[in-house]
Each structure stands twice: as C-alpha cells, then as structure tokens.
C-alpha cells in the first residue's frame, strides 16, 4: 500500500514559508511556497508533483559528461554508466527558514568567515561633525556628521580585507604576483591610518607598513 503522504507538498523539503488559509467552506489548510519558484504561490499541502524531495535531503544534480568522454569511452563490459546523484543532508532548521531568515544567517556566516564584525566609533567623536572650511572668504563651509564619515571608512576597510583574502586565495595567481598585489593593499592601509583616531578599539584600526602610521 502506497504512503498517502508520498509526493505531497506538505511533506516536501521545498515546501517553505508555510501559513494557514481558510477556504470558503471554513476549512483550515496549510499553504506555502515552492523553493524551486516554478509553481506560483500559494501551494497547498495536499498538492503533489514529480519534483518532490523528502525533508532533510536534497539531491545534487549530476555533472554533465564531457563531449569528448561521452563519445566512445567504454569499459571492458560496455559504455560507462552514469553515477547516481549523491544526496546532501541539510539541517531541518535550515529547511524551515523563510527567505529573510536565511539571508540574515548567510550574512552572519560571511561576516564570520571574513572576520568582519561590528565596529564602534570612539566615544569622544559621538555626535561630532567634520567641517570643511573654504580658504576664500564668503564661501559656505561643508559639515558632515562624523558617524557618517566613520561608516564609510569602515566600509572601505572591510572591502580592503575582502580584497586581501581574495588575492591570497586566488588559484591562478603565483606567489610573486600575490606578494606584489598585497603590497598595494598594504599601502592603501597605510594611507588610511589617518582615520585610526575614529576607532574605539585598536584592533579595528588600519595597519600599514612600518613607518606609514
């Protein structure tokens, strides 16, 4: 006897953002969205399709065979058989997340991997302003909140760190090329050490070559 829940949307790993809806007859049903994005929402838990995947598992697609290998490559017993896809087990908590929750978790993981964390402005600059005063009389000065300037400086710092990691991990760059490009990044750090006075923590500051600070 077949399982009555087999291939039903309500038990599929791709059935996400579940919410309750009420029919005209007053019956309460669970509805949701398909992670594949092929079928428009809402999908009901009683729906079925050929793309059903059991909760906790996704099947990765097999890599397409090279055209050269696909023609004429044979074993002693005949043509090479395609390998079955390897199931990838995902945590249940991940499958229950909606798009917004998943985006927040992914952002946090990326920040942790890159060593990017919240940075604090030194207390003495809180609420302050940066004033650009023209050298000629009668021209209007320009004022910028220090916290806005600090935010832009931190963004530059974080992007330089990302660039540095990508250079060091680039598979096509030789060691000499990595060292040469790293020197340019270090020079940028040195040019920005002027802004170190804005950081509350010394570990967050720019560090250039010795003598640049």
- Radius of gyration from the alpha-carbon trace, in angstroms: 28 Å
Largest sheet: 3 strands, antiparallel
**Bulk shape:** elongated
Oligomer, anyone? single chain
| Total DSSP helices | 5
Strand content: 5-15%
How many extended strands?
A: 7
Structure description:
With 213 residues, the protein is of the alpha+beta class. Among the domains are: 1-56, no CATH class; 118-204, no CATH class. It has helices at 67-70, 92-95, 99-114, 146-168, 175-191, and strands at 15-22, 28-34, 43-44, 57-59, 87-89, 129-132, 142-145. The strands form 3 sheets. It has a 3-stranded antiparallel sheet, with no helix packed on it. A hairpin with an 8-residue loop joins strand 2 and strand 3. Helix 4 (146-168) packs antiparallel against helix 5 (175-191). The longest helix has 23 residues, at 146-168. The model is unreliable at 59-63 and 68-72 (pLDDT under 50).
Any descriptors?
213 residues; alpha+beta; two-stranded antiparallel ribbon; 5 helices
Brief account:
This protein has 213 residues and is α+β, with helices and mostly antiparallel strands. Helix content is 30%, strand content 15%.
Topology, element by element:
Elements: E1 15-22, E2 28-34, E3 43-44, E4 57-59, H1 67-70, E5 87-89, H2 92-95, H3 99-114, E6 129-132, E7 142-145, H4 146-168, H5 175-191
Antiparallel strand pairs: 1-2, 2-3, 4-5, 6-7
Helix pairs in contact: 4-5
